[in-house]
Amino acid sequence: MPHGTFIFVPEQAYWWYLASTAIGLIISWSLHNVIAWMKNKAFMARWLSLAYIGTVFLAQPYWGVEIFANFAYFNNIDAAFYESCDHWKHYFGGQDAL
User: Fold this and answer.
1) Are 18 and 70 in contact (CB under 8 A)?
2) Residues 52, 43: contact at Cβ < 8 Å?
3) By the 8 A CB rule, do 29 and 56 touch?
4) Residue 31: enclosing H or E segment and its boundaries?
5) Where, by residue number, does the polypeptide cross the bilayer (predicted)?
6) Beta strands in the chain (DSSP E)
7) Contact at 8 Å (CB) between 3 and 51?
């Protein structure tokens, strides 16, 4: 639950805390998808099983970029980078805000 506790952090560390707890959130999301794949692969054709787990692995580099983009945007490092990456979020399973 650390990602939901960022409102209690002092303002100086707020965005650092938000970006660092997002890492755990993404790991949890990815692990959930891998476990779901392990449970369901017996009921899938081989090509579908490979496509499913392949999309989980292919999404991982995006999430690294997304975490950095959020950090850079909220720390006034590079707002343009965040805005150029933001429209890709919906293709990789993201919500409106991380």
Assistant:
1) yes
2) no
3) no
4) helix 14-40
5) 14-31, 43-63
6) none
7) no
